[in-house]
Amino acid sequence: MKLYNISLQSLRRRKAKTFFLIIGLILSVASVVTLLTVSKNVNQSIAANLDEFGANIIITPKTDDISINYAGMSINNVSYNNNELHTNDVEKIRTIKNKDNISIVAPKLLSVEIINPANGTGDKNVLITGVRFNDEIRLKKWWNVTGKIPSKGNEVLIGSEVKKKLGLKLNEWLKIRDNDFIVSGILDATGSQEDVMIFMDLNESQKLLDKKDKVSLIEVAALCYDCPIEEIVQQTSSVLPGANVTPIKQTIESKMTAMHRFEHFSFGISAVILIISMLIVFTNVNASVTERTKEIGIFLAVGFRKSHVMQIILFEVITASLLAALIGYVIGFLASRFIIPVLTMDESTRIVYDYSLMIFSVGFSLAVGFIASIYPAVKATRLDPTTAFRSL
């Protein structure tokens, strides 16, 4: 009779012990698979949401001209020289190798202009900002607007400080360079430079300021979860050689810190599960060896080598581990399909089979079973056959 047949017969004969051994491994594998799958998908979902919640890259022309402060950064070159940014640079950014990591590209045209309100409060200097409102709303998810976002060329959105400075209200008119504009929306206080700006459509601002196809800066929200931000910056710089591409380090580091904390938590729980799994297997196999003293003694007495006895015990554990790995992977994957939409609050989240995780599950289960059963297996080889016969 071959050794693996002896192991299989032993598993069948000891149904209760085998059942608890397999169940313990299944729960361990399923827990780890669920945790890793949930961690990966939730991290990606959180990363995407964080990366879209504000720009993490600022692109400006290379220049030594005057600077203004925008979004807490010093932005060079509001005036133009040989190094300029243009509207088509947005499309160039979309051509980089990691273009899939580029979530939002928001170009802006900045200029300080004299504003003449129709309410007669007097002329004031105000920073005009031309934007693409669809991109800007996606980029600035914290914006809260009273009224509505401009949808026509003659509509503008004003900051809270501009409202106070000019005494403007909704649907009131103002004049910029002899062109009339109506206030369609008022931006609630943000505590940033946006409070002192007047926002208008980018194309309209380019016509108004006689800056055809030109922009002052470009804000980029890059998904840096699976790609280092330095690579995206380098690739962007290569397609825009006349621009300064600057990552906002503080924003990126705060996002990655949040992600790493969640990952460390997941790994910590996995380590606890690993230790518990090994204890379950060790206890089960050790108890089995103790109960089978007579059987092992007979094997040794009839000529089985110590290595044969060890192989019989290890093969039992490996067989149970392999079966548990496959069942545990399926259970863990199905469990994650219910858990992930709840944690991400996104029912559209799609979870695909990860065959590398299946291979990991098999390896994890086999490793746990093998390591935890080494001592009981060695213990079995050290049994004295005469001791077994005395117990008959």
Structural write-up:
It contains twelve helices and 14 strands. The protein is α+β, with helices and mostly antiparallel strands and 392 residues long. It folds into two domains: 3-48 and 257-390, no CATH class; 56-247, no CATH class. Strand 9 and strand 10 (179-187) form a beta hairpin. The longest helix has 43 residues, at 249-291.
Question: In a nutshell, what does this entry contain?
Answer:
This protein is an alpha+beta fold.
Task: Determine the number of helices (DSSP H or I, runs of at least 4 residues).
Answer: 12
The geometry reads as rod-shaped
- Low-confidence runs: 76-81
State the end-to-end distance: 23 Å
The H-and-E topology, N to C, reads as HHEEEEHEEHEEHEEEHEEHEHHHHH
Structural class: alpha+beta
Domain unit count = 2
Write down the Rg: 34 Å
- Report strand %: 15-25%
What is the number of E strands? 14
Strand order of the largest sheet: 5-6-11-8-10-9
Round the mean pLDDT to the nearest integer and report it: 80
Task: Assign a percent range to the helix content.
Answer: 40-55%
Biggest beta-sheet profile: 6 strands, mixed, barrel
Essential attributes:
392 residues; alpha+beta; 2 domains; 6-stranded mixed beta barrel; 12 helices; 54% helix
Reconstruct the topology from this structure.
Blueprint: H1 3-13, H2 15-52, E1 57-61, E2 67-70, E3 73-76, E4 85-86, H3 89-93, E5 102-117, E6 124-131, H4 133-139, E7 145-147, E8 155-158, H5 160-166, E9 173-176, E10 179-187, E11 197-201, H6 202-208, E12 214-215, E13 217-222, H7 229-239, E14 243-247, H8 249-291, H9 293-301, H10 306-344, H11 355-381, H12 385-390
Parallel strand pairs: 6-11, 8-10
Antiparallel strand pairs: 1-13, 1-14, 2-3, 4-12, 5-6, 5-9, 5-13, 7-10, 8-11, 9-10
Helix pairs in contact: 1-10, 2-8, 2-10, 2-11, 8-11, 10-11
